[in-house]
């Protein structure tokens, strides 16, 4: 018998889903099943075949199929949910809650039916509330339902810091806490360039401008694209999290995790530093926060709760 290959299903074959499928295949992390609604079956098959035909050129051996049939997702090691509406200029992520929470319910039922042991990674916005909704609908343990926000928000912060200092992005580290909205909390105090605290390299005024740009980073791209939202950096972020889980890397990465008292919050999904590994969220890391940081986080939590209440 051959070696059992890993299988990742990506639900939603739009901009983020298709890009994520390609990135996962290019890194040979797993075979990929790309799923969309029956109306979109043929374009989804077309995207998958087009990606597969890149494999001889790029030299990757992952298989990619497109489908609208959840039977094809059976036994997935990881399922990534990108299904649903994206915002357009003038909308907030929270405006998507009514439409996307319905989609989360139906998609989650299908995932659970065919892959009861899988781990679910959620991208769909408003992502903190959508991750909570998938958690409730799936009945899965908390460590197997995870949301993506912090890797992307931190990547934006790292990009802007690298541009500011003219230093490699590789040497810039940071942490963004809280909900994936305009009041997220980039933790400057825990951010470094080559081990040097950013506060020693950049003035407080300039740092505050970069923090503000990070908070509005999603909206900046929405404004530029005109008819959708970001997908390259979101897909790269999902791929990094998928790799950590599939390879049991125990990476220290921010993720949207279910909190039961950590940071003083209960029964909420929120962006926090975690250890990501083969079991999904292996641990939530609790950092000491100053009074000001805690106040900012409280504000972000209020925004997330407001949207979660619509879902419940
Ligand atoms: N958490 C984060 O950091 C980010 C979240 N997002 C969110 O991800 C979501 C997807 O964004 P895009 O891919 O750009 O949108 P898109 O519109 O390009 O793709 C969405 C896809 O979902 C499909 N879909 C709708 N209902 C479905 C169902 N019931 N089952 C399967 N597929 C279904 C649509 O047919 C479409 O192909 C949006 O909600 C967006 O706001 C996007 C970027 C970053
Ligand atoms: O801004 C949006 O709507 C999509 C998103 O979450 C991001 O790019 O951060």
From TrEMBL:
Residues where NAD(+) binds: 12-17, 36, 100, 123-125
Single biological process term from Gene Ontology: lactate metabolic process
Catalysed reactions listed for this entry: (S)-lactate + NAD(+) = pyruvate + NADH + H(+); (S)-malate + NAD(+) = oxaloacetate + NADH + H(+)
EC id: 1.1.1.37
Enzyme class: oxidoreductase
Keywords (A to Z) from UniProt: NAD, Oxidoreductase, Phosphoprotein, Tricarboxylic acid cycle
Lactate/malate dehydrogenase N-terminal domain location: 7-147
Active site: 180 (proton acceptor)
Residues bound to substrate: 87, 93, 125, 156
Domain Lactate/malate dehydrogenase C-terminal, residue spans: 152-309
Function: Catalyzes the reversible oxidation of malate to oxaloacetate.
HAMAP family to which the protein is assigned, alphabetical: Malate_dehydrog_3 (MF_00487)
Stored NCBIfam families: MalateDH_bact, PRK06223.1
Family: Belongs to the LDH/MDH superfamily. LDH family.
Protein name as it appears in the record: Malate dehydrogenase
Gene: mdh
């Amino acid at each position: 018998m051959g070696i059992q290959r890993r299988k990742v299903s990506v639900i939603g074959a739009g901009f983020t889903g298709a890009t994520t499928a390609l990135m996962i295949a290019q890194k040979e992390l797993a075979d990929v099943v790309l799923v969309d609604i029956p109306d979109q079956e043929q374009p989804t098959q077309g995207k998958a075949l087009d990606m597969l035909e890149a494999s001889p050129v790029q030299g990757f051996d992952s298989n990619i199929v497109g489908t609208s049939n959840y039977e094809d997702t059976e036994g997935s090691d990881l399922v990534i949910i990108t299904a649903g509406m994206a915002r357009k200029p003038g909308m907030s992520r929270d405006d998507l809650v009514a439409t996307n929470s319905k989609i989360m319910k139906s998609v989650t039922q299908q995932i659970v039916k065919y892959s009861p042991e899988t781990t679910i990674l959620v991208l769909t916005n408003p992502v903190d509330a959508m991750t909570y909704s998938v958690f409730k609908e799936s009945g899965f343990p908390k460590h197997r339902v995870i949301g993506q926000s912090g890797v992307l928000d931190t990547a934006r912060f790292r990009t802007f810091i690298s541009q500011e200092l003219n230093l490699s992005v590789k040497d810039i580290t940071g942490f963004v806490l809280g909900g994936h909205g305009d009041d997220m909390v980039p933790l400057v105090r825990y951010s470094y360039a080559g081990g040097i605290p950013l506060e020693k390299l950049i003035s407080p005024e300039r740092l505050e401008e970069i923090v503000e740009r990070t908070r509005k980073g999603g909206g900046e791209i929405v404004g530029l694209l005109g008819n959708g939202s970001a997908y390259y950096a979101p897909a790269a972020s999902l791929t990094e999290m998928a790799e950590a889980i599939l390879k049991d890397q125990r990476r220290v990465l921010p993720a949207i995790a279910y909190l039961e008292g950590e940071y003083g919050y209960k029964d909420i999904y929120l962006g926090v530093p975690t250890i990501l590994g083969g079991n999904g969220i292996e641990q939530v890391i609790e950092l000491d926060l100053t009074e000001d940081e805690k106040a900012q986080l409280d504000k972000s939590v209020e925004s997330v709760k407001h949207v979660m209440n619509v879902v419940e």
